[in-house]
Design the sequence.
C-alpha cells in the first residue's frame, strides 16, 4: 500500500510542478525509518528510533533549474515545495547546455537489496547486536575499551517520477555499525582506532568483527616510537586504500570534473594511468552491494561500467546532464543521499579487483616500510597531492612488524603512486561504498620529527 | 505556527507518565543556497525540514524517538517509542544516568540582525554569486574551475522539558564560500576561502564574498607552479584565520567531557600547566555573532563562557547535564544536537585562543628557517593530543623574511607540545565559522590571532 502511495505522491508533485508552468519536472519521495543504538564512554548511550518523510522537487523552466525540498507530504506541502522549486528555476539564468531530464528504459533486476530479517529486527534484536559488537572489544583484548560506537538499521522506501515518464520505486535495507576504541597500558593511551562495517542483509553483518578489529587496531598502536624519515614502501590496509586511492579516482572519473577540466584524466580515455595489474569497475548491480539498486537518483537504470582495465582508463561516470552534453547515455551514476539533496555524480559500488596475497604475505615482502591502518589528513583530488598522519600504523623491517610509530606523516601524489603499485592484496572488503583490497605501494614519503 | 506547536508539546508532555525525565524538541530548518560553477547557476535550493523528537529517561536509561508527523498522534507516538527504546537498552546499561540540576527558564532568543533573510527577497544573493564568479574567472586565464556558494540557514527551536524549561530560539546563520582551481598543463592548484557568521544578510555587506573570491583566485593561480614545502619539524607562524583550527581540533576535543572520560590527554590535567603562559583558551557559547552561539543548548541549559586553559593552566571541561553530574560540576551548556533526528552530545560552540600584542612582522622576523602557514582546510584530533589539519599555502621564511610561496600541506604535532612552544601571539584576533563532525555534525566558531610555534610539515621530501 505504502509503496503505491509514494509513487502517487511523486506523480502528484510532478503534475503540480507542470501545472505551475514547469517545462519539465521531477519528484523524489522518501520514507526513511531508522533504529540505532549509540554507544559512548564504555556504555550504551541512547537508543534512537527515527522516522521521516520528505520530497525533493526539481522544476525546469526553459532550461532554468530550481530545486526545493520539504519534510511533509500533504497537498499543501506539495504545493509549497513545487512553487518554491518553480520560483528558484525562474531566478536562475538559462543553462544553455541543458538537454532534458532522462526518459524511461527497462530496468535491470537486482538482488539482495531488501532483507526481511532486517525489517523484522525489533528493539531487543538491535540491543543484542550492539552488545555482541561491544563485548567483542573487551574479549579481544583487555587493554582496549570503547570510546564510541553505533549500530544502525535503516529501511528506505523511495519513488522517483519525472515528466518524461519515469516512474520507479524500491525499498532497501541497510545494517551498519562503527566502533572507536582506545587502548591503554601502563598509563599510556593509544590513538583512536576506528572500524566500520555495513551490509544489506542481516546474514552478512557480523557485529563481532567491528569490535574485535577496532580493539586490535587500538592495541596495535600502543607504545609508538619515532622513526627516521625515508622514502619507501607502504602497505595500505582497506580504509586508507578507500580514503586515498579510490576517492581520488572517483573524482577524476567524474564526468563533471572531466568536462570542467579539473580532472587530470580529462582526455585520457584509453591512456595508461596505472600499473597493469590495476582493475577497477563501478558495478551498480552487484548482488547485495551497499549502493546497489536497479535505478540511480534520477531513475536511470544502473549498470556495470569498467573504469580501469589493465591500468588503462576506460570510462568516466555520467549522470544524464553530463552524458547528454556529450550526446551519450548516462552510466546511471546520479547519486542522491536524501530527498533534501539534488542528484550529483558519484560511484555506485566501485570495486578494485583483488590480487593473490594476504596482508601477512605482503608484509613478508617488505624490507623496510609502514603498514598503514588509517590515514588522517588531506587529499587534493584534482592534483592528487596528499599529506597526513599515519594512524594505527606500524613500522616493518625485513618482513617483520617492529613497533607502532608516532608523529609520522606520509605524503605524495596519488596519480604518480598508481604507477608505483608493487602488489595488490586480498581479500576485498567494503569500506564506505568502495570495495577494496590492501595495496602495497613504493615511493611514498615518510615524514617524521627527527 | 510556533505557538500551536508549543501547545501540542505541552499537552503531550502532560501525558508522558512513568519517566524520570522527558524533553521534547521541535526543530524547523529553512535554508536557501545558490551554487554557481563556471558562470552557470548550478542550483538554487531552498528547503524546509520540520520535525520533533522526544528524549526520555527511564530507570537511568535514555530513549529517543523522532518524527516529521506533527500531529497529536505523532507526539504521542514518539513519547511511547522513546520510552520503549529506553527500556530496550536497559538490559545491558552499565551506568545509571543522572542529570545535574540547571536553571529551568522560560525564555526566548532571536539572532540579532538588521537584514532578516526571511523578510528580504533573496534574489540579490543570486546576482552576488554570479558577480563573484565572473570576477574570479576574469582574474586569470589559468582558472579552470570555480565554485561560488552563498546562502543562509534559519533554525527555529522549541525546547520543553518535564522539569519546566520552556525555551524558544531562532538562530540565523549566513555563509558564503568560493573555491577555485587553477590549471596550467598538467599542474593543478586550489584556493578556497569563506565568509559567514550568525547574523542576518548584513554580514555580506560587512565581509563581502567578493573578497573571499579574490583571495581564493589569487592563491590558486599563485600556487599552480609552486613547489611543495620541505617536510620536517619547523618553526612556523600560523595565520590568525587558522589558529581557531588549532584551538578546536588540537585542544578543544580533548576537553569534551566524553573524551575526558575516555582518558584523553587533558583527563588528569585539571590545575596542571599544559601550555605556554601566553595561552588562554576558551569555549564561549555566547560569543557575539559566533557561528556556534546559542543562548541555551539543546538540553535547555543556559550557555556560558567556559575557560579550558587560563595562562597555560587547565581550568575546566565542557559538559552536558549527564557528564556534569558524573564530574560533580555545573553543566556548561555544551550539549548540542544537529537536528531533531539526534539527541545532544557534548560539543564545542565557539572555541578560541585569546590574542596577544605582536605584529605579523615581529612574529616572522625572529625565524631563521620556517614557514608562514595560511588558509585552512579540514582537520582531525586524537585522544593523545596528536592532531592534524590542512593549510592551503606555506610561505617560506628565510632569515626573518617571507620568500617562496609553496603549496598547501597537512601539518601535525602533539597539541600540548605545540601549545608549550607558543612563544608569541599577535593582536589580530578573528573569529571564523566552521563545521565539526563527531557522531553528528554541527556549526562551530573557531578563533584566534596569528601565533608562532613549531609543527611537523608533511611536505614533499627533504
Sequence:
Amino acid at each position: 500500500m505504502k509503496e503505491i502511495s509514494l509513487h502517487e505522491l511523486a506523480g502528484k508533485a510532478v503534475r503540480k510542478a507542470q501545472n505551475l508552468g514547469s517545462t519539465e519536472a521531477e519528484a523524489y519521495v522518501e520514507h526513511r525509518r531508522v533504529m540505532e543504538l549509540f554507544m559512548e564512554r564504555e556504555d550504551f548511550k541512547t537508543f534512537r528510533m527515527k522516522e521521516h518523510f520528505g520530497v525533493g522537487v526539481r522544476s525546469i523552466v526553459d532550461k532554468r533549474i530550481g530545486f526545493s525540498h520539504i519534510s511533509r507530504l500533504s497537498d499543501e506541502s506539495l504545493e509549497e515545495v513545487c512553487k518554491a522549486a518553480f520560483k528558484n528555476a525562474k531566478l536562475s539564468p538559462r543553462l544553455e547546455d541543458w538537454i532534458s531530464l532522462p526518459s524511461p528504459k527497462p530496468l535491470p533486476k537486482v538482488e539482495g537489496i531488501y532483507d526481511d530479517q532486517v525489517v523484522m529486527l525489533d528493539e531487543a534484536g538491535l540491543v543484542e547486536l550492539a552488545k555482541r559488537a561491544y563485548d567483542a572489544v573487551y574479549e579481544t583484548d583487555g587493554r582496549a575499551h570503547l570510546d564510541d560506537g553505533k549500530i544502525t538499521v535503516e529501511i528506505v522506501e523511495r519513488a522517483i517520477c519525472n515528466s518524461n515518464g519515469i516512474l520507479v520505486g524500491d525499498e532497501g535495507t541497510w545494517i551498519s555499525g562503527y566502533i572507536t576504541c582506545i587502548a591503554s597500558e601502563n598509563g599510556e593511551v593509544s590513538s583512536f582506532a576506528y572500524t566500520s562495517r555495513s551490509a544489506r542483509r542481516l546474514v552478512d553483518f557480523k557485529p563481532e568483527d567491528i569490535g574485535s578489529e577496532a580493539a586490535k587496531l587500538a592495541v596495535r598502536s600502543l607504545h609508538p616510537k619515532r622513526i627516521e624519515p625515508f622514502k619507501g614502501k607502504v602497505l595500505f590496509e582497506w580504509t586508507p586504500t578507500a580514503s586515498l586511492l579510490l576517492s581520488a579516482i572517483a573524482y577524476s572519473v567524474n564526468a563533471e570534473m572531466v568536462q570542467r577540466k579539473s580532472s587530470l584524466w580529462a582526455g585520457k580515455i584509453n591512456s595508461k594511468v596505472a600499473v597493469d595489474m590495476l582493475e577497477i569497475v563501478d558495478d551498480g548491480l552487484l548482488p547485495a552491494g551497499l549502493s546497489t539498486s536497479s535505478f540511480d537518483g534520477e531513475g536511470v537504470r544502473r549498470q556495470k561500467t569498467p573504469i580501469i582495465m589493465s591500468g588503462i582508463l576506460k570510462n568516466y561516470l555520467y549522470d544524464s546532464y553530463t552524458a547528454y552534453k556529450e550526446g551519450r547515455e548516462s552510466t546511471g551514476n546520479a547519486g542522491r543521499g536524501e530527498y533534501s539533496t539534488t542528484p550529483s555524480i558519484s560511484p555506485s559500488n566501485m570495486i578494485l579487483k583483488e590480487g593473490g596475497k594476504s596482508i601477512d604475505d605482503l608484509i613478508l615482502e617488505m624490507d623496510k616500510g609502514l603498514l598503514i591502518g588509517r590515514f588522517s589528513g588531506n587529499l587534493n583530488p584534482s592534483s592528487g597531492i596528499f599529506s597526513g598522519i599515519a594512524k594505527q600504523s606500524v613500522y616493518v623491517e625485513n618482513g617483520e612488524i617492529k613497533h607502532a610509530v608516532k608523529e609520522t606523516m606520509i605524503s605524495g601524489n596519488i596519480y604518480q603512486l598508481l604507477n608505483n603499485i608493487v602488489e595488490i592484496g586480498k581479500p576485498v572488503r567494503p569500506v564506505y561504498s568502495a570495495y577494496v583490497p590492501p595495496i602495497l605501494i613504493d615511493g611514498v614519503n615518510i615524514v617524521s620529527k627527527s | 505556527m510556533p505557538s500551536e506547536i508549543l501547545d501540542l508539546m505541552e499537552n503531550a508532555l502532560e501525558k508522558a507518565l512513568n519517566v524520570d525525565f522527558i524533553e521534547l524538541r521541535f526543530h524547523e530548518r529553512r535554508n536557501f543556497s545558490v551554487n554557481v560553477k563556471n558562470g552557470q547557476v548550478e542550483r538554487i535550493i531552498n528547503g524546509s525540514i520540520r520535525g520533533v523528537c522526544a528524549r526520555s529517561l527511564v530507570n537511568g536509561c535514555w530513549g529517543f524517538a523522532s518524527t516529521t508527523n506533527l500531529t497529536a498522534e505523532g507526539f504521542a507516538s514518539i513519547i511511547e517509542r522513546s520510552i520503549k527504546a529506553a527500556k530496550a537498552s536497559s538490559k545491558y546499561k552499565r551506568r545509571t544516568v543522572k542529570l545535574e540540576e540547571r536553571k529551568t527558564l522560560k525564555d526566548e532568543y532571536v539572532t540579532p540582525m538588521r537584514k532578516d533573510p526571511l523578510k528580504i527577497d533573496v534574489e540579490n544573493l543570486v546576482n552576488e554569486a554570479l558577480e563573484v564568479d565572473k570576477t574570479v574567472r576574469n582574474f586569470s586565464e589559468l582558472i579552470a574551475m570555480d565554485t561560488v556558494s552563498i546562502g543562509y540557514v534559519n533554525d527555529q527551536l522549541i525546547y520543553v522539558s518535564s522539569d519546566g524549561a520552556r525555551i524558544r530560539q531562532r538562530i540565523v546563520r549566513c555563509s558564503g564560500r568560493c573555491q577555485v582551481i587553477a590549471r596550467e598543463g598538467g599542474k593543478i592548484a586550489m584556493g578556497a576561502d569563506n565568509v559567514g557568521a550568525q547574523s542576518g544578510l548584513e554580514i555580506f555587506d560587512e565581509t563581502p564574498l567578493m573578497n573571499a573570491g579574490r583571495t581564493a583566485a589569487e592563491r590558486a593561480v599563485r600556487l599552480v607552479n609552486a613547489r611543495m614545502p620541505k617536510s620536517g619539524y619547523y618553526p612556523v607562524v600560523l595565520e590568525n584565520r587558522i589558529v581557531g583550527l588549532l584551538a578546536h581540533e588540537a585542544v578543544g576535543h580533548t576537553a569534551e567531557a566524553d573524551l575526558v572520560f575516555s582518558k584523553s590527554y587533558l583527563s588528569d590535567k585539571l590545575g596542571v600547566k599544559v601550555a605556554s603562559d601566553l595561552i588562554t583558551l576558551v569555549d564561549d557559547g555566547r560569543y557575539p555573532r559566533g557561528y556556534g552561539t546559542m543562548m541555551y543548548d539543546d538540553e535547555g541549559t543556559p550557555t556560558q563562557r567556559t575557560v579550558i586553559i587560563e595562562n597555560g593552566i587547565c581550568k575546566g571541561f565542557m559538559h552536558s547535564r549527564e557528564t556534569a553530574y558524573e564530574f560533580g560540576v555545573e553543566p556548561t551548556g555544551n550539549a548540542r544536537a544537529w537536528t531533531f533526528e539526534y539527541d545532544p552530545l557534548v560539543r564545542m560552540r565557539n572555541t578560541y585562543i585569546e590574542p596577544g600584542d605582536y605584529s605579523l612582522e615581529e612574529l616572522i622576523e625572529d625565524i631563521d628557517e620556517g614557514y608562514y602557514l595560511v588558509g585552512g582546510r579540514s582537520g582531525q584530533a586524537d585522544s593523545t593530543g596528536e592532531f592534524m589539519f590542512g593549510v592551503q599555502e606555506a610561505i617560506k621564511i628565510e632569515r626573518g623574511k617571507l620568500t617562496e610561496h609553496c603549496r598547501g600541506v597537512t601539518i601535525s604535532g602533539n597539541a600540548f607540545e605545540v601549545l608549550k612552544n607558543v612563544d608569541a601571539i599577535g593582536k589580530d584576533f578573528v573569529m571564523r565559522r566552521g563545521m565539526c563532525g563527531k557522531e553528528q555534525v554541527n556549526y562551530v566558531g573557531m578563533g584566534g590571532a596569528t601565533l608562532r610555534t613549531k609543527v611537523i610539515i608533511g611536505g614533499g621530501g627533504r
Summary: Residues 2-19 of chain A form the longest helix (18 residues). Chain A touches chain B through 83 residues (CB under 8 Å).
